[in-house]
């Protein structure tokens, strides 16, 4: 785990890919849990008209490429929690 704290507040619209490079979806927005003012996960929508979303915890993020708008994960997309 990295000692750098990720800022998850300004990642709306970023594309999310798992460890194999498969697309998980696009970031809808940050999700808050442990602290009311610091997001600790991302809500990722899997398709354009899809209602399914994945919960991407901050500790699963490997890297964020701000230039290309892609977030790389260190886990497979099957290991992410799904919710409506």
Structure commentary:
This protein is mainly beta and 84 residues long. It has one domain (15-83): SH3 type barrels, CATH 2.30.30. It has strands at 15-17, 23-35, 38-45, 53-57, 61-65, 70-73, 81-83. The chain has a seven-stranded mixed sheet, with no helix packed on it. A hairpin with a 4-residue loop joins strand 5 (61-65) and strand 6. The termini are far apart.
Comma- or semicolon-separated keywords:
49% strand, 0% helix, SH3 type barrels, 7-stranded mixed beta sheet, 84 residues, globular
The total number of structural domains is 1
The ordered H/E elements are EEEEEEE
Helix/strand/pairing class, anyone? mainly beta
Poorly predicted runs of 5 or more residues: none
CATH architecture type: Roll
Oligomer: single chain
Largest sheet: 7 strands, mixed
Strand coverage percent = over 45%
Radius of gyration: 12 Å
Q: What's the mean pLDDT score? A: 89
Output the CATH topology: SH3 type barrels
- Overall geometry: globular
**Could you estimate the helical fraction of the residues in percent?**
under 10%
Please report the total strand number as a whole number.
7
Count of DSSP helices?
0
What is the spatial order of strands in the main beta sheet? Answer: 5-6-1-2-3-4-7
CATH class: Mainly Beta
Distance between the termini: 28 Å
């Amino acid at each position: 785990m990295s000692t750098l704290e990720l800022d998850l507040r300004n990642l709306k619209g970023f594309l999310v890919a798992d460890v194999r490079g498969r697309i998980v979806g696009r970031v809808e927005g940050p999700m808050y849990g442990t602290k009311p003012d610091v997001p600790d996960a991302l809500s990722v929508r899997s398709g354009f008209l899809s209602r399914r979303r994945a919960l991407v915890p901050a500790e699963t993020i490997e890297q964020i490429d701000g230039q290309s708008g892609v977030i790389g994960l260190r886990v497979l997309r099957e290991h992410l929690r799904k919710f409506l």
